[in-house]
């Protein structure tokens, strides 16, 4: 017989359930009022339309009947003010016409054909699209051509991820965000899957560069890359956009040292506060924040900042920081590096859906805190503090992208290297398909979150006792 969770019957949970019940009843009441109001407006509109039709019929009948000299003509409705009225009001004709504003409105045009571009070579195939290098025939400009992926079993048409990506890219204009030039279609317009995004071409993605570098980036180069990343993320968050899949393979780099954020297939607009129910199945597993792994349905910009922290660590080691095999293993690696959560360090984490059945080790006698400083001994105190704050288990303690830009780490020596002085690398995208490391893909559209069940991490830090004691030494008594 399955035992009840010791976290399910607290007074706090009962109060939370009662609050949810009241909110649900209030939503039902507001929905009913809204429906009644809409019905009243519909009836009023129908009555107004009927009255207008009746007046139109009477006017038509009057025009068909012979005029009666004894009946005065109907008064014509005055649309524009007469000259006399303008003079009485003290206005001139020019002043009056200035109030009538007219705007040039763009019309809907046909999308250009993809045949205006010559495909040069494939670059990669991701979770939400296939990307190739192409050249515009008319101008000779080299671009990246991304074909949107479609689910053949989905009859709803253009996928929501594709629509969001197009909308967000059209709205964004920043030097650290890849630009969308246009959307083109195949000549066979009867097939909706022939939709392509024409994006600016950059020679590298950061993951491929890290995999091929014989030596890691210098500290000054790491700072330059992080500043550009934080600048792009700050722009997105200022414009209410969550990227939700930041990772090194989605960061492009050109041969002039400029970094750009790409692949907005999982991005979406959010408000303040964010929507109450967002899918937690976002962000590639190795870059996914702990609150998402624990089932949080309400989250904000902090999930992107956790990914920025993972990218920070990857720039230092040239390897992904938290390479979990699955969700449970990913949580274990997070707790091992960042420490176990407590009610003091992360208030309320026990109320997350997947946290109710967590079995965590006892902190007495064992160091269960973060070991980020020990993992990166070459980082300065300021760099270690920045990385530790980005990888804080509590999302409220992570800095915003703007706060990151003002961090002391970037003011210390060595200063960030100028982009023009950045090293250059041979462009794999310009020659052949990129060699991909074995990394997990982003979550698929419509995929369901895994049921983690009971997670036992009680023995996670058993090996730390020997690490802390060390080999030691013994005195021989003579």
From TrEMBL:
> A biological process (GO) annotation for this entry?
regulation of mitotic cell cycle
The annotated regions of Basic and acidic residues compositional bias extend over: 16-52, 411-420
Q: Which InterPro entries match?
A: CDK (IPR050108), Kinase-like_dom_sf (IPR011009), Prot_kinase_dom (IPR000719), Ser/Thr_kinase_AS (IPR008271)
State if Transferase is listed as a keyword: yes
* Gene Ontology, cellular component aspect: nucleus
**Any idea of its EC number?**
2.7.11.22
How is this protein named in the record?
A: cyclin-dependent kinase
Keyword set, alphabetical order: ATP-binding, Kinase, Nucleotide-binding, Serine/threonine-protein kinase, Transferase
Give me the ranges of the annotated region Disordered. 1-100, 411-478
Q: Which SMART domains match?
A: S_TKc
Compositional bias (Low complexity):
53-64
């Amino acid at each position: 017989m399955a035992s009840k969770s010791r976290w399910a019957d607290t007074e706090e949970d009962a109060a939370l359930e009662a609050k949810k019940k009241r909110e649900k009843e209030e939503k039902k009441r507001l929905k009913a009022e809204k429906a009644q109001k809409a019905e009243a407006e519909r009836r009023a509109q129908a009555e107004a339309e009927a009255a207008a039709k009746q007046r139109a019929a009477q006017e038509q009948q009057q025009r068909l009947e012979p005029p009666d000299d004894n009946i005065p003509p109907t008064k014509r409705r005055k649309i524009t003010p007469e000259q006399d009225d303008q003079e009485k009001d003290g206005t001139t004709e020019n002043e009056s016409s200035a109030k009538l504003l007219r705007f040039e409105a763009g019309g809907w045009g046909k999308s250009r054909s993809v045949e205006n571009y010559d495909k040069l070579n494939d670059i990669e195939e991701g979770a939400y699209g296939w990307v190739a290098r192409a050249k515009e025939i008319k101008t000779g400009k080299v671009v990246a051509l991304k074909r949107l992926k479609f689910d053949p079993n989905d009859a709803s048409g253009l996928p929501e991820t594709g629509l969001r990506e197009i909308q967000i890219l059209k709205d964004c204009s920043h030097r650290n965000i890849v630009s969308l030039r246009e959307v083109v279609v195949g000549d066979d317009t009867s097939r909706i899957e022939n939709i392509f995004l024409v994006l600016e071409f950059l020679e590298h993605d950061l993951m491929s560069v890290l995999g091929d570098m014989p030596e890691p980036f210098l500290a000054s180069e790491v700072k330059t890359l992080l500043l550009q990343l934080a600048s792009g993320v700050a722009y997105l968050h200022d414009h209410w956009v969550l990227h939700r899949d930041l990772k090194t393979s989605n960061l492009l780099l050109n041969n002039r040292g400029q970094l750009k954020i790409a692949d907005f297939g999982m991005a979406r607009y959010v408000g303040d506060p964010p929507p109450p129910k967002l899918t937690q199945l976002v962000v590639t597993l190795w870059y996914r924040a702990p609150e998402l792994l624990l089932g949080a349905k309400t989250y904000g910009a902090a999930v992107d900042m956790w990914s920025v922290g993972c990218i920070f660590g990857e720039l230092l080691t040239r390897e992904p920081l938290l390479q979990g095999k699955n969700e449970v293993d990913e949580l274990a690696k997070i707790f091992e590096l960042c420490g176990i959560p407590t009610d003091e360090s992360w208030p309320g984490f026990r109320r997350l859906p997947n946290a109710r059945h967590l079995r965590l080790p006892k902190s007495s006698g064992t160091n269960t805190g973060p070991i980020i400083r020990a993992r990166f001994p070459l980082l300065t105190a300021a760099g270690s503090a920045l990385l530790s704050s980005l990888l804080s288990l509590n999302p409220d303690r992570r800095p915003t992208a703007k706060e990151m830009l003002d961090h002391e780490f970037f003011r210390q020596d060595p200063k960030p290297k100028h982009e023009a002085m950045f090293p250059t690398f041979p462009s794999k995208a310009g020659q052949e398909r990129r060699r991909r490391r074995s990394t997990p893909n982003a979550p698929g559209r419509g995929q369901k979150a895994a049921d983690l069940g009971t997670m036992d991490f009680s023995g996670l830090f058993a090996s730390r006792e020997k690490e802390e004691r060390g080999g030691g030494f013994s005195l021989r008594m003579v």
